[in-house]
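Q&A log
Question type: sequence-to-structure
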Amino acid sequence: MTKVETTDLRAGHEISRVVRGGWQLAGDHGAVDRQVAIADMEAFVDAGITTFDCADIYTGVEEMIGSFIADLRARRGAAVADRVVVHTKLVPDLARLPDLRPDEVEAIIDRSLKRLQIDRLHLVQFFWWDLKLGRAVEALEVLKTCQAKGKIGNLGVTNWDSAQIAGFVEAGYDIASAQVQYSVLDRRPSHGLGKWAREHDIRFLCYGTLAGGFLTDRWLGAPDPGFVFENRSLVKYRLIIDEFGPWSLFQELLHCLQRIGDKHGVSLSSVATAWVLDQPQVAAGIVGARYARHLPQTLQVFDVTLDAEDHAAIAAIQARSGGPSGPVYGLEGDRSSRHGRIMKYNLNTRPDDTVLGQSNG
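Response status: OK
Response body:
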């Protein structure tokens, strides 16, 4: 049986190096069979993938994980249920940043605890859409107070580079992790944040590892689909491919990953994930597998060790790419850019929020 690797973010905070992502279980990503998704979570835990990623703005996902944990506790006892490690996020709505009160921040934490049906959030990853608005430091101070009360284990941040994180670290906050987009297509975390994070004992939790499914056999040899997709996730990562280079260069990368996978007897997606796990400061890759039928392929990453030749082959193609360039989340953080315009900014108060420039009417 494949042994899942683990690592410690902080003392007593052990996580699996593959984290089961939750974004694809939220709205906007196609139909989800809620009962099947909840039931399948048990297979991941039994296989050793004990860490789950979610967020207050992932509609319905905290509740799904909470139902799973409660059912596991009832059927198999607290010892088994307590193996589940939950990483959630606190993402106040953009429209509320100027006037968000401290009591409202703690109320979001209390809501996550209630949804997840646990006594303590293992990790809360903080994000503030625009640091020029409102009082982000005050909000993070509330989370530190929640730590002291036992409601939160550790604090992390998400979608920030060193320029944004530094102010909080300098203010004395212990930031255990930074959740960043990181893949063979998107190497922005290596452009300076990696070295800075090492100096400040911050580990990476990486999403976009498989670029929303583009780094799989499904797209090997496929024609360029353009930008018409059924969900925003595919649009988001198609934009990243566009930054990386033309579709033809992306296809060269896929074929390279396939050759390496054939050499090691694993899928190209396992090679893509293994590449991320090999990068400095990376604690784990977040893989958005909706159902347990994807579990065997997900576990393959722990059956492959990439050698110098493999890394050199991938690097040779990456060296020909045009990007993405700039800081972590720099493209997406520009709300006027094509990356920023597909985001939804007010999902806490308006779960049916539309992307910028669109309306529900």
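Response note: DSSP finds 13 helices and ten strands in the chain.
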